[in-house]
Amino acid sequence: MREHQSKDWNYHPDLPLSDPSVFNWPPRPGFIAHWFWRNWLMLSERVILLVLAVFAWAFLFPSLETTQRFAVAWIAQIWLVNMALMIVVSGGLHWYFYILKGQGKRLKFDARDQAKGNRLWSFSNQVHDNIFWSLTSGVAQLTVFQAFTMWLMANGYSPVITLGSNPVWFVAFLVLIPIWSAFHFYWVHRLLHIPLLYKRVHSLHHRNVNIGPWSGFSMHPVEHLIYLTTLCIHWIVASHPIHLFFHVIYQGPGAAMTHTGYEDLLIRDKRRLALGTFYHQLHHRYYECNYGNQEMPWDRWFGTFHDGSEAATTETRSRKKRMYS
């Protein structure tokens, strides 16, 4: 058996999973500095999405002045840009990993291919099902939240800053948005795992046991609504359109990057870009564990952390039986 392979996984990282949260106590300055360097000062998912957000602000999305009055034209413009970004990011990752098979199954958690010929899925096809929900309800609701927030900002109902007026907060809020997103995601995710909501809403997303890029934003419309309330932070906290666009892209197209099913992008046999996490892959297989992500300590604090061990699998299955009995 090869290193990092088991009967359950085509690939897994070193187990049990370590604790990479920046919120450990006492604080570890060296660890925090390395976390900041890895996420913001070298090629990373966040840097790529921020570059996309700045580009979209400069060339693609309407200006705040344009959005002072609701009009079909500028809302349609936002919808078209969001649609294009979703197709480029999700479609591009799917093409590379699952059509071109750019790195085969190296660093792929689950050895199986995406499902076909199964009535569990709309169109009897996992990828087509995921594309449908992502590009219909997903892009539509993302556009509604973004358009309404821009209207609030344009009319002075939400506080707006510029880089020149408040450079420290401008940079700090960029760093805090993914942390806020992780905090929000944990709690709404716990809500979605209440048995009634899970069976009627969240189970659509959880069809994806073996995830792929299009799985990330494939959700029931009610889940899209709950999930995207994270954007409401811009209604009350001072921000710039770049913050909003970064947040929109992070929540929408960015979900494809965390659901690739692969841990890293390999270029010339070297890991060049961190993508999906085994932490969340465990959630998709075992359901009642790892509701958040590794950046926040909630799963560890509240006893829902799965570290990849057999003992954690046994405990998670017992918890699931208790919840649904």
Description:
There is one protein chain. The chain is mostly helical. It has one domain (29-324). Helices cover 54% and strands 3% of the residues. It is built from 13 helices and 2 strands, in the order H-H-H-H-H-H-H-H-H-H-E-E-H-H-H. The chain has helices spanning 29-40, 45-59, 72-99, 126-154, 167-192, 195-206, 221-227, 233-236, 241-251, 254-258, 278-286, 298-301, 310-324, and strands spanning 264-267, 270-274. The protein has a two-stranded antiparallel sheet with strand order 1-2. A hairpin with a 2-residue loop joins strand 1 and strand 2 (270-274). The longest helix is centred in the middle third of the chain and has 29 residues, at 126-154. The model has no long low-confidence stretch (mean pLDDT 95).
What would you say about this model in short?
This protein is an all-alpha fold and 325 residues long.
Structural class: mainly alpha
Give the strand content.
under 5%
Distance N to C terminus: 38 Å
Largest sheet: 2 strands, antiparallel
Low-confidence stretches: none
Number of domains: 1
Query: Over all CA atoms, what is the radius of gyration?
Result: 20 Å
Number of helices: 13
Q: Strand tally, please?
A: 2
Order of helices and strands: HHHHHHHHHHEEHHH
State mean pLDDT (0 to 100 scale): 95
| Biggest sheet, spatial arrangement of strands | 1-2
List the helices and strands and how they pair.
Layout: H1 29-40, H2 45-59, H3 72-99, H4 126-154, H5 167-192, H6 195-206, H7 221-227, H8 233-236, H9 241-251, H10 254-258, E1 264-267, E2 270-274, H11 278-286, H12 298-301, H13 310-324
Antiparallel strand pairs: 1-2
